[in-house]
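Pipeline run #58 for the internal structure catalog. This entry was flagged by the ingest filter as a single-chain record with no existing model, so it goes straight to prediction. Upstream metadata was stripped on purpose; only the residue string is passed forward. Reviewer on rotation: M.T. Logging verbosity set to normal.
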Amino acid sequence: MDGQRVAPTYPKEIRTKYTKPGEKIPAVTFHLIEVNNKSAPRKKDIQTLTQDNLIISEVAWVTENHEHVILRMQNRVRDTEKFVLVDVKSGNAQVVRERDDVPGLSTPSYVDISDHSGWSHIYLYQVSGSEPITLTSSNWEITAIHSIDSKRGLIHYQSTERDSTERHIFTVSLDGKTKEPLVDIAKESYYSASFSPGGEYYILSYAGPNLPWQELCCINSDTPIRVINDNASLKGKLSAYSSQKSPGLHSSTQMDTNSTFWSVYRQISKTFRQRVDIRAYLGSDPELEYIVVSVDNRGTGYKGRRFRTMAAGQLGKLEAEDQVWAAREYAKRHYVDAEKIAIWGWSYGGYDTLLAKFPITDWRFYNSVYTERHMKFLTTNREGYNTAIIRTSGFQNVAGGFLIQHGTGDANVHFQHAAALVDALVYEGVSPEKMRVQWFTDSNHNLDFHEATSFLHKQLSKALYEEKGRTPAGQHQWSRRRVKRRSVL
């Protein structure tokens, strides 16, 4: 609708390229162009993988004078990876390493985050391809490299060293011999940092679990240069309210032992996402009285490569098993009503839920770059693809109802997913009393069109509130009889 408040007489069709599993992918080539030379770009033919099986996922300069550039090349299913070094003047190319990834830098070396040890850590590689220098190690993971200071020989990074759900900032020398924290690592915290180009100054951002703040700091001083934002005004206002820390399984839970609560399990996405639902309309609404639970199932990131890759080739299986296990464990607690447990998911999380929003329903419909990486080719893993398709039986048997929400303009998870699922549910005779469906016209994956996000949250709250008041015996006649399907000739 292009921002119009009134729908046009005829809709406009927008054609986009979106390669699905097993289909032909766009051909990718590498070119060099001189900014001060108007001649045509020079194409570099690099014979490492066939054109129909090639993804160039990263390109970076690796010498100060821009004499060499390195390419990270992978096959479609991501089980073959080559680093190719290209000499800019001669055009010669050679494979200097066969394995992993990331940012290029100055000096005749480059820094890479690799998980070949089982955990994502920082390594320093010579451009020539010799054995790397291990800069970090142990059973935790690097989550970001914030700055590489070749002048001082330092790398500033973010990691899960204290806990997989926390983030702290550290500095390590380029020889790997010294490592220091830039923040207090004795306290549970979630930090990020933004460094100046020279690497000497940085903005330190604290995101929780207490009130967020920001400071301007210097790497040579323990005292902040100045406070950017301490949220003092908000702190004063919040002091009038009581609050409670969201407990993890390793923490003691302080709750009213005479009250009973309902639970909402929140599935968001696969791998590199961890979140406890902070939205006040769910976690603190006195009318809803729901406990919001987030579970790091198998396949979640930041717990090592083995834990992260367990779901490979069988997306949805282990994740769903772990969510069900967690729900059953919580149902045993005296303050949880075992009859009123819901689950909500967004995108990949929607695929793993019954209360679904933007759900992936069939991996054949999703983009090839992501799908083939985790599920391999459809021709070699057809059983895995078929097993991963959403089944209608779960919707038939769910005690309460379910809500499906999707934007018709979603260019990530196409509307085809939800449309095919609803069609299958209608065909299988799922009761209209159970199923609620909501389309958001022209909304993309972020639901940022015509106030759709606000409506979605209100609709979710309404669904949970109605589920809270549901009685086991309260069934409409449509729930007591199945729709008779017509014979298909």
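catalog note: The chain has eleven helices and 23 strands.
catalog note: The longest strand covers residues 336-346.
status: ready for reviewer M.T.
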